[in-house]
Amino acid sequence: MNKNLNAAISSFNNTASTLQASFESLKKRVEELNKELEFKNMEIERMKSLEEQADRNSRLTAMGEMAVKIAHEIRNPLGSIELFTSLLQREITNDNHKNLLGHISSGIKNLNHVISNLLTFTKQPNPIFKKFDVHKFIDDLLQFSKFSLNNNNIRLEKEYSPSLPSGWGDEELLKQVFLNLILNAVQSMPKGGVLKVKTGLGEKLKDNTPFIEMKIIDTGDGIAEDNLKKIFNPFFTTRESGTGLGLAIVHNIIELHKGIIEVESEIGKGTTFTVLLPVKQRHEHE
Ligand SMILES: Nc1ncnc2c1ncn2[C@@H]1O[C@H](COP(=O)(O)OP(=O)(O)OP(=O)(O)O)[C@@H](O)[C@H]1O
Ligand SMILES: [Mg+2]
To answer: Could you give the residue range(s) of every CATH 3.30.565.10 domain in the chain?
Structure first.
């Protein structure tokens, strides 16, 4: 009897520990399945957000295309307004009226700036590289900006290197670079100041290629250190009416020229943008 009972107990114990082991392994399996489920849920979430992102992207693309169409539509009448304003400016002798027309003309220039930036940013530029006279190029641009410099009490200083070789690049695109840099400098000096343009020749860009150095120096409000890393990002702006595309475009164009752009700034003192453009080597084909 006792023997039988012992055998029954030990068989019961055996069964219990087998059951315990299968229970443990089942528990483990459930845990694994739960983890898998969690992972799958995360995947689903990720897919959902990817789908949403794709949806947002296609809406943004459509909006971008519409913006480009609108920009083109605005550009033509704006050109006529600009032309008629400059004709009127020549006709009118009254100083007050002349001044009002000056404001209209600088408003048109700002609109033109926004539209040109938008169009340049959305299309892939196809640069046509040519030799050009750097100082003549800068002087033409400064002539274009003269009204806005005078109007904002900004004195112009030039420090041109006497022995500068010709530049090599797409003048139309480089024009956008320097117009953006000059406009930013002007906007940073609402109470007036000094805009200095300096040129020089350097010798060690990457593989010892000589480069032309062009500096746009202002005595404006400066850029906070935290913002310095962001200023070349598209749409980064601290200005109420800014698009934040100016420096993003500048950066793209300088990269197309295999150049470098650097910035130094101090709050309350001013900002220096330095553009380094490689000088074309003689053995290259024109
Ligand atoms: N010379 C400067 N002095 C002070 N801040 C500057 C200067 N240049 C650029 N910044 C800062 O960098 C930001 C980005 O400049 P960016 O030219 O890309 O855009 P934006 O001038 O704000 O707008 P947009 O050029 O499209 O009219 C500016 O909003 C400003 O905060
Ligand atoms: Mg700008």
So the answer is: 130-278
